[in-house]
Amino acid sequence: MKKALMIASVLLIAVVSTACINNMAVQELNNKAAEYMQKGDYESAMNRLQASLDLDATMYETYYNLGVAAINAEKFDKAIEALEGGIKVKPDFADFYYSLGIAQNNYAEKLGETEEDKAKIDELKKESVQNLITYLEMKPNPEEKSTIDEIIKANTEKIEEEE
């Protein structure tokens, strides 16, 4: 009985220690990513944030920061992936929807004029409108409301032209 209690205690200590080390590593990666973002080195920030998510995929802030870094690096597909991942973790965080709508809009504007791109552009613009509307429902009077309204109007008009 004492032996079993001793083994259980050692295992518990090992699990707690590992969790603490993991949290410290995640925090260190996030801090380093913040430094890189301040310097405008979005690629390095993205690498650190992805490593942080690999260690702990439950921190919604890391998804958000990765999405923002990817938008700044114009890696819109990565931004969309990160922000959608964050929504799965914390769907009531309004800023996910704003940033996702912006990433989708910017990605649509970056694409070319091929037939394949046109279909993707329409899809991205529709999703952008929906995400920005969701953001406004969650935050009715944000500072950037006029910009959001302009994007929604322009994208809606573009979608209607295509139909």
Secondary-structure blueprint:
Elements: H1 2-39, H2 42-55, H3 60-72, H4 76-89, H5 94-110, H6 115-138, H7 145-162
Helix pairs in contact: 1-2, 2-3, 3-4, 3-5, 4-5, 5-6, 6-7
SSE pattern: HHHHHHH
Number of DSSP-assigned strands: 0
**Major sheet characteristics:** none
Low-confidence stretches: 8-21
Instruction: Report the CATH topology name of the largest domain.
Output: Serine Threonine Protein Phosphatase 5, Tetratricopeptide repeat
* Strand fraction: under 5%
Model description:
The protein is mostly helical and 163 residues long. The chain has two domains: 6-90, Alpha Horseshoe (Serine Threonine Protein Phosphatase 5, Tetratricopeptide repeat); 92-163, Up-down Bundle (Methane Monooxygenase Hydroxylase, Chain G, domain 1), CATH 1.20.58. Helices cover 85% and strands 0% of the residues. It contains seven helices and no strands. The protein has helices spanning 2-39, 42-55, 60-72, 76-89, 94-110, 115-138, 145-162. Helix 3 (60-72) runs antiparallel to helix 4, helix 3 runs parallel beside helix 5 and helix 6 (115-138) runs antiparallel to helix 7 (145-162). The longest helix is centred in the first third of the chain and has 38 residues, at 2-39. The protein is globular, with a radius of gyration of 20 Å.
Tags for this model:
single chain; Serine Threonine Protein Phosphatase 5, Tetratricopeptide repeat; Methane Monooxygenase Hydroxylase, Chain G, domain 1; 2 domains; 7 helices
